[in-house]
Queue: 4 jobs
Job 1
Amino acid sequence: MSASEAGRIDPQALDGAVEWFLRLTAGAVSQADRDAWQAWRQADPEHERAWLRTEALTRRFEALPKGMLPVLGRPRSSARRAALGKLLVLIGAGGAIGYVQVDEAWRGWVAQYRTPVGARREVLLADHSRIVLNAATAMDVLFDAQQRLIALHGGEILIETSPDPQQLARPFIVRTREGSITALGTRFVVRRDDGISAVQVLEGAVRVALPGAPADAARIVPAGMGLRFTGGHIDSAEALAGDPSAWQRGMLQVDGMPLNEFLRELQRYRTGWIDCAPEVAHLPISGAFPLGESDRVLATVADTLQLGLRYRTRYWVSLVPRGETIL
């Protein structure tokens, strides 16, 4: 196990820790609340790890210089949480705030809009643009006089932009840590996972730019094309395979995707853990699969590839060569 894997904490445990943090710091807390919190911490070692990580991240925020943002000095409240979210948007947007050593996990935890594993959500913005959040996604919205900004901290969103109702039209920008995507009358999908951002354009076009890069280095991506960008580099654009927005209709559509990658995609919509034996990880998967029926999908895939399902626990399922099945 690598150092990064050893330090990784289950996202659901982190979500639970943050929910407890917000609950315990929102105001009056009863002894029953405290007892329930302690019981949650003791129920699973991963819960305790998640709580300790949350405490450490909180201390980082408490180290912010006093007076940087007045509401941060107030008691814990919804207004204070919203201020933290806006602060992180500004940091991610390259604003004037100088405190940038903030753990990235906080960006998602205090985000204005979040979805858990297996859930989707639609948001109608003030300019009548529409955004659909895929599972396990976090984003913030910051509209001001100069721009319409979406800060995507992690996950995947489908955007349908509308003309700006303001007299002086403001650009519509989706920003990730890796760069920015400016809409040019567009319907498109943006995804960010593991330090890699990707855009897939369904209608219109977008302009992709890297932080600090000259304007002439930006890349125009037309409809029917997509590309990835990360680490100061923009990959070449490629034609879209299938419908990248099928997930908004509750379907996972793939074409020749290796089994291990397919299971990582399905994991976004299923509680627990799914994996496969190394010797079958390369097997290709094609088709359209209902996201709300992951057990049926796993059974179908196992049958199609002539594999077995090993249920290690109720929440941990592995696809293995047939003959190794343990129920």
Job 2
Amino acid sequence: MTSAAATGGPSPARTLAFSTEGIPTANRVELWSIHNAKALIALDIRTMDDSPLAAAEINLHFPSIKLAQVRGSAQVIERNERFIRRHPMDVIGVFFALAGEAFFYYPGGFETLRPGQAVIYDADRPFMRGFHRGVEEMVLTIPREEYLALSGGRPLTKPVVVDFHDAGPSNRHMLALARLVREALATGTAGGAPAAAPLDARAVEASSLELLRLLVAGRGAGTPLGYLASARCFIEEHLADPDLCPARVADAVGISERHLTRVFAEEAEPPGAYILRRRLERARSLLADEGERTTPIAAVAARCGFSSQAYFARVFKARFGMTPLAARRGGADTLILPD
């Protein structure tokens, strides 16, 4: 297991990493269990056959929450009543299934989880999870006390399954939380070491908590930060849609357009201006991409939600001080703006 600190402002996120690669076969399950007990959740882990366990995990530890990217071969994990008494965790877990199906048994029932579904559950209530084709998931844990503060004091007595599909019907807030966790893991770790780009740990944790509040406390209980994170996620998904507008964003996250405007006002950027900025930033990124060299500029504009190439060229130049063609050439004919 390796560890490091990914700093971003006053709240650092500690990173850890584990892999069974290079570990003798006979010791893998034991060391995998030890890592999870220290870095995430203590688990009784068993393989499903005689095949050697292959597993890897990257963890990010914040002051309150913990995040993890987990991959592994077929296995069963369990926390029964006896194990829980020996290893209490006092945390709520959110498990985001990324690949393969898994079963989730708990007192009184079971769930079959598919990729694009997340389950929220109290780790100190008995459960058994099985991954017959291997596991690939993200995990978020939060202390039970903090969860209760977010949920208005309502305990989690049974698993809650929520969709977060990238396409098709999904819970917008859970999709936003999944995207936030994915981006934090990608930004905050690079093979277990700090990434080149600093992680804004305080912002990640605060947004994660407020998105959880939206999920567990229900409509009308959200804060501006939670709605902002959810709105930004919806905007990123729909930048290519020329009909994307503040009214659609507001409807998607469950608030009025006026409320959405107030949410974005705290960031000193109206929602319409934010949409335009993100479209232009995506367009600039595509124009700088070597793999997009042969893509017509009109097609780049369309992929970023601009139905008029002339308008795209005008606002692009106003934003970046160069034409889209100049941006593709690396800024060779950049317009020098006065101070």
Job 3
Amino acid sequence: MKLRCAILDDYQGVALSRADWGPLDGRVEVRVLREHLTDRDALVGAVEDCEILVVMRERTPVDAALLARLPRLRLLITSGMRNASIDLAAARARGVTVCGTDSSSVPPTELTWALILGLARQVHTESRAMRDGGPWQSTVGTDLAGRTLGLVGLGRIGGRVARIGQAFGMDVTAWSPNLTDERAAGHGVRRAASLHELLGAADVVSLHLVLSDRTRGLLGEPELRAMRPGAYLVNTSRAGLVDGPALVRVLREGGIAGAGLDVYETEPLPADDPLRTLPNVLALPHLGYVTEDNYARYFGQAVEDIEAFLSGAPVRELA
């Protein structure tokens, strides 16, 4: 009898076309859910007959309460090797194997720079004016060469962002709770003595930390107001690193020049959220990982994960 597999939150309808699901023919029946189901009862009704779930990043939280309502579930696959919205302990307790896939640091790095450049040259404002018949050349851009780029986090993505900043001729500084002088020097950047020092000196602040109890709300109102009035904040990491209401207040008051955002506490972002309409916000719908190569990697390895599980030798298990 075939096992049933549901792929959740495939917004763009790409899951089946970005990988060869043929190896599972005759063994697994695959269905795709393109709409995000926020109603828990509706979600359970759609997947309660499934032994396998494939989830995209953290679009749908899989907590203990949901797992308890999915007694048939045996294998849970997430894109990437980290997913804070999955209760791994609850999954283990219920005998559910949780596996992941590789994820490239290139797409979020490139999108970070799309946001930095878009803000510096006011691309969103000028593009809208061109489309709507507005004024010709209504803004004056910010030069990046000679300016200071402050990186909060210097891991895989932060390190790549640093190298590109250096190529633009920027002075790059970095800070994180565990960053050492030696590690910063290895990337050719200066380590700021504190978060406040970095925020007060940077013209562009870009966030590249993992969200945890330690880092949640790291940038509250005092930290945001420590930034320069002409500075930009870019967040392609996790929304929870920043106090959302405080950010809206600071942006409305002109406490910073603007923000480039790709991550939000609630996704999709509600239609009435002020981040959609503030003129000094360049907002994208969480596109950091959304590229052809990354999707091919996610779904191709999801097929591999299922094959390995069926053979009794799961791969890429999450601890």
Job 4
Amino acid sequence: MSQKRASISDIAKELNLAVSTVSRALSGHSRISKATRDRVQALAEQLNYQPNHLAAALRKGHSNTLGVIVPHIDGHFFSQVMKGAESVANRAGFNVLLCQSNEDYEQEQKNVVTMINAQVDGILVSVARPTHDFSHFDKIEKRGIPLVFFDRIVDSPELNAVELDDFQGGYQSTKHLLEQGCRRIAHFGGPQHLQIYINRFGGYRQALKEYGIEVEDELVLFSDMWEADGRTGMTQLLALPNPPDAVFSASDFSVAGAMRVLKERGLRIPQDMALAGFSNESFCSLTEPGLTSVDQCPEEMGRAAMQLLMEMVHDTGDVAVAPRKVVIQPRLMKRESSLKGKG
């Protein structure tokens, strides 16, 4: 059975001292005699007393902890975001509390309550896919806790956010497929209540427009962007009288599912159909052929989001600061799945 953790009260009771005297003795206060400090320190070591730094910090009005709420920590993107965010926070002496919504709206609401109850000094959030109502985030702002959205953001000029130029990512990817000679390009799009997927779809439309190509409804399929959705989508596209010659997907996971279907049908990539995804997940360089994808620069995004949050945490409030939006530029990683040797 584990031993009960000793407290300052336990030490005070054992030595017949006031709790305040023990507290000062443990902190080396000069007004407490050396003899008393030595007695307190000796008993503290004997009882294996460990100071509660969190409680001490909370008494001073801050926890030295920053919260991060993400949809999930699976895959490359959010794990690398966390790597960048933690590097900035730890360097400044802050701890990071991580919660996952697991793409669940109700869990995301619980995560917000958890962060508030933990009295974190600031919160980073990337919203879950099913989240349509963002009112639970109002609780954070009403308590004066600095809040920064990243990647999947709430589209409001009143909020602080760090995002990728998703429109540019969608545009670059689709234009690359056009430059390779593709003319009938399908799009796997994500939920259109989330700004990132709206913008990626917008970039796709813009690139087609510049080449004088109309967007065809039968070539645009919206889903939750999992691998199974990609398999279903590709099966649907191949059943068309005139299938596409390329797919730009707003997610690597769905295009990976599409790739499996093409291989099962004996179709060649990119000769019969070129593929391009989004996020540059770790598996993109391991598939055969390698998968072209848009790099979201997750570590850079994590660092930028945490830096913005830290600036808000340290803001004295003496001068009103307008909400800020930081936009990171994407990089198109060209691999064999889209390279037809043209352009």
